[in-house]
Amino acid sequence: MTKRLSLIMLGLVLYFGAFAQNKEIKFEEFDLDNGLHVILHKDASTPIVAVTVMYHVGAKNEKPGRSGFAHFFEHLLFEGSENIGRGEFMSMVKSAGGALNANTTQDRTFYYEILPSNQLELGLYMESERMLHAKIDSVGVETQREVVKEEKRQRIDNVPYMSFQEEIFKRAFKEHPYRWTTIGSMEDLDAAEFSEVMEFYKEYYVPGNATLSIAGDIDIEETKELVKKYFSEIPKGDEPFRPNIEEPEMQTEIRDTVYDNIQLPAVFQAYRMPGQGTDDYYALNMLTTLLSGGPSARLQKRLVDKEQKALQVAAFPYALEDYGLFITLGLVNQGVPLPELENAMNEEFEKVKTELVSEREFQKVKNQIESDFVSSNATVAGIAESLANYHVYFGDANLINTEIERFNKVTREDLQRVAQKYLRPENRVVLYYLPKSEQPQSETADSGTEKGK
Amino acid sequence: MKKILLNIIAVCLLAVPAFGQLDRSKAPEPGPAPEINLGDYESFTLKNGLRVFVVQNNKLPRVAFNLLIDRDPVLEGEKAGYVSATGDLLRRGTANRTKDQLDEEIDFLGANLSTSSTGVYASSLSRHKEKLMELMADVIMNPAFPQEELDKIITQTKSGLAASKDNPQAIASNVQAALLYGKDHPYGEIVTEETVENITLDDAENYYRTYFKPNTAYLAIVGDITTKQAKKLVKKHLGKWKKGEVPSHEYPDPQPLEATKVALVDRPASVQSVVHIMHPVELKPGEEDVITGRLMNEILGGGDARLFKNLREEKGYTYGAYSSLSSDELVGKFTANANVRNVVTDSAVAEFMKELKKMREEQVEEEELSSAKNYITGSFARSLESPQTIASFALNIARYDLDKDYYKNYLKNVAAVSAADVQRVARKYIQPDKSYIMVVGNADEVKAGLSQFGEPEMYDIYGNKVKEGALGDITAEQVIDKYISAIGGEEKLSRIESLTQVMQFSVNGMEITNTTIKEGGEKYLNVTKMGERELSKMVYNRGEGKMVANGQITDLPSAQLAGLKSQAYVFPELHFDETGMEFDLRGIEKVNGKDAYKLVMNIPDGDKAINYFDKETGLLVKTEASGMNIEILSYKDREGIKMPEKIKMITPQGTFEGEVVSVEFNSDVPDNAFSLN
Asked: Cβ distance B86 to B150 under 8 Å?
């Protein structure tokens, strides 16, 4: 089973839920007495159903020194329950003709099964077992600890440039838990103790911290009864701990070099930006599309196609609940010094600050954003997840229909204004990625990490 | 009245405890299986022969056009890669629009439009369908084939090839193709840097003119559009697309194997072996065995199936082990594969063989079979969520001439498969005793273990047999000696103490100068400049070294220092005693079409380098080291010694040709040139 950690780069651009022109997504919501929030969406076009649970807990809820714990814990919740034997989660879903998976971000953890519609009850049974009395023993903890470390080696340490999240976030954040990554460090993963596992479960895996979102070929009334049948008996639990940590503004540019197992040098810039859902966030999101959304976008056209300074360029919003980062990156072409590429990218940012975007180009960006949104509601699993996201982050699941209005409020002047406000040198982290062969020896000796082994 | 009320209360009372007594010890039973309805499609044919399928689906206000050119596979020969390059070129300019204009117009719609050698795909919001179809038709009917764009494609393809040379998966896929189908079959051809260089605009235009004809094409239109709208749109924009005769091609079937063969590709750096057990099969799309074969394969090598459970869950050899059985109009294939640690390579092959044999010899359990049926049924239902699935069903029925109800009856046919059917199909399509056991890995560590399955035959990364037998009595020392005499002889060479060599090459139109200075095994300098600007510099001086790049000075890592210790000699081949370098003759491989001896050079405490010496002339023709290949294309006489003249560097960032413009022997080099400060 591959339980993916959400390591989204370009995917983040399309991350937002969706709206559909004139095609409203209808849904019903209610709360159980124990605090579980339930969202139901009926779509009978295919006889399948997505049963999903989103827990409002992620890497930012971890204690210092326990980075990676929330994701590690996600793996443990596939181990079984009082009534589901170890390793049976996967085979039960598969022989029912379904698919399942889970993922964890800094802000939330998401579990889902996509099943034939006549197996709705099986999905509810499994998710309620997971919430009511997951069974985790020390054998499972030790096995999954190794699996998660293997996952880190395979998906991050051995993937060129993938350390960028760790390297950028630890420099861009000094106080807030966003300073560590969701996958965590090997050291912290090793340090996690069995007793902490059950503490985490009791603290965060309570109905009041969960959203059960179901979409597909269902009968709404019947589903309500089934939800009550399986979830009502789960005890309410206490209000979970939520960190409320303010990150002070950056005062000076942070510039550094990272040596990685790569062939091509690259430059990364990360500008601090406000959390998702804020007005400026929408403008910054559109700005990344202007810069790198498609072959005609400014960075692509100039640096990859015309001047061939870069093999690849990208700009994307790393959107999170409390704060975010506006990330840009470029991989140089052979023979081009990195500063030359960085300067050319900076020139493009300056241009946005000094020249108002033309009506036509602005309309192009709006069209691209609209198109992406419409496409993101193509599956019932996607709809279930979007509904849960909007509820968990903004307390308004109906944003699945109305969020586009927030983008539509953004003006050309806003793009210029947010470029001036956020794309400032003193508000950024700049990293030069260079091949390991260029690493000074003293540094090689110091960094005794497992990276690249 | 009262009675009725009592009844209601009684029902309520009964209902409540029913909740409290929820039996969680067993998973709930499924309800009655839902009916799986395949969506409908309509079709029509234009006068020019273009067959169009329309799948209307108004769930989202989107529309997608998918044009498929249905032609026989094409044998590309010494220009392998030109067909795919043609596909790329279609998107890079038309008679009416430059690439810039195309990019802007497509992005303005918030649309996508991509091209390949066998089709064009475009999608957008449905309200832009008219404009999108106009752009798509322009790309299909009026491609401009700009030379500069072909040049870019060739450069990019070569960069990609260079980067993939070190990628074991890419090597495995090349060698698999060559072994299964042979190099004179379109499925067995391999694209190399040499074949890509042979591609011209004429090739692209010829391909386009020959195969892009409406009468052998299908267009699938999916989404928020009616058949009437679709018909109007297609007639207007593609009605004038001219039909024409399209050639058909036939190819001989690959010969089935008589016995199992072990094919080994040496990749000395590997810590993991890529293992494929494979053979061609005769299985065409739509044949009765396809569905039974899918079930059989699901049980053997699907996710969480027999191979996975054995090799990963029980033995821990791998992260995943799978198999596949694929049908094809020309020739299909069966493969079972995994990436496994070096030391368990032979054990993993043994487990594979055991599972393949078991599949043939024993009937599967009913429970295993019904679980696989459920999984396939569920996957089928889930796939129907995308309207594209219906379109691909329609295309398959037309292309492969399937029964029109093939997909309507699909699940019924899945349900009807018995354990005996599975075994019959396993016996027919899994041939462990007549298959290739292909391994890409570290030959030193895995070859001996593999010989229990048959004498391993060595292949190079392009699927050419390495001529081990042809080595005769020659030893590695003799290859080195032959090289030394070929470039001038030991006596002459030993008089050269120092060397200053200047090379020029061009990168993206910029002139780069590279100067190398070597002195007596003690000092080494390498400077790369663009004009007057220094890009990078490497200095080595009696065991210490520094590197300057991107304005930063760093110490050289130890592996690189070890290499420079030997490179500081003008002719390192005369100084193996001092440097402790070891070398090993590995066989004969082709370099640019000529036989060459392959020598692996082991630098103490350093990296490995692989040198190729021409069998005829004895000259060094190619070096592979640290992810970069350097080919020496020609030599020039310098004071009686043959020195490299034309050089080709193949790096992950591209291929660059350079020329040595000056060579000076024993000239005075100021000592401060090697200063480490």
From this structure: no
The dotted CATH code for A254-446 is: 3.30.830.10
Chain A hits for B510, CB-CB cut-off 8 Å, are 335
Indicate the number of domains in chain B. 3
Task: Tell me how crowded residue B420 is: count the other CB atoms within 10 A of its CB.
Answer: 10
Q: In whole angstroms, what is the distance from residue A281 CA to residue A269 CA?
A: 17
Q: Is residue B340 part of a domain?
A: yes
- Domain assignments of chain A as residue spans, ordered by start: 10-231, 254-446
Residue B252 lies in a domain: no
Query: Do the Cβ atoms of A97 and B378 come within 8 Å?
Result: yes
Regarding whether B507 and B421 lie in a shared domain, the answer is no
Query: Does B250 map to a domain?
Result: no
Question: Does residue B186 fall inside a structural domain?
Answer: yes
Closest CA to B237 of B123, B133, B140: B133
Domain identity same for B459 and B539: no
Q: Does domain A10-231 have CATH number 3.30.830.10?
A: yes
Kind and range of the H or E run holding B142: none
Is A370 an 8 Å CB contact of chain B? yes
Q: How many CB atoms lie within 10 A of CB B444?
A: 13
| Averages of pLDDT over each 10 residues, chain B, 677 residues | 40 40 88 86 96 94 96 96 97 97 97 96 96 98 96 83 76 95 93 93 97 97 96 97 96 91 88 92 95 97 89 80 95 94 92 98 95 93 91 94 93 95 98 96 92 94 79 82 91 90 81 89 88 84 83 78 84 85 83 86 78 92 80 91 89 76 88 78
C-alpha Rg value of chain B to the nearest Å: 32
ipTM of the complex: 0.87
Q: pTM of the entire structure?
A: 0.80
Cβ pair A432:B550 closer than 8 A: yes
β pairing state of B544-549 and B62-69: unpaired
CA gap A25, A377 in Å, rounded: 9
Q: Considering only residues 170 to 209 of chain A, which have any Cβ-Cβ distance to chain B shorter than 8 Å?
A: none
* Residues B140 and B91: beta-carbon distance below 8 Å: no
Phi and psi torsions of B47, nearest 5° = -60, -30
B625 close to A (CB below 8 A): no
Q: What are phi and psi of B525, to 5 degrees?
A: -140, 135
Q: What is the CATH number of the domain that holds B361?
A: 3.30.830.10
CA B49 to chain centre: 35
Cβ separation A305–B556 shorter than 8 A? no
CA dist list (Å): B249 to A277, B74, B186: 58, 7, 10
Say whether residue B382 is in contact with chain A using an 8 A CB cutoff.
yes
> From CA A33, how far away is CA B97, in angstroms rounded?
63
Do B545 and B624 belong to one domain? yes
B286 within 8 A of B406, measured Cβ to Cβ: yes
CB pairs under 8 A between A and B: 199
Matching residue, tokens 């060739």: B154
Q: Which domain holds residue B500?
A: 471-674
What are the start-end ranges of the H helices in B65-118?
82-89, 99-108
Question: What residue type is assigned to position A157 of the chain?
Answer: D
**DSSP code per residue over A415-431:** HHHHHHHH--GGGEEEE
**Are both B359 and B477 inside the same structural domain?**
no
Same domain, B230 and B299: no
Domain stops at, among B465, B491, B514: B465
* Core vs surface per residue A384-417: b (16+ CB within 10 A) or e: bbbbbbbbbbeeebbbbbebbebbeebebebbbe
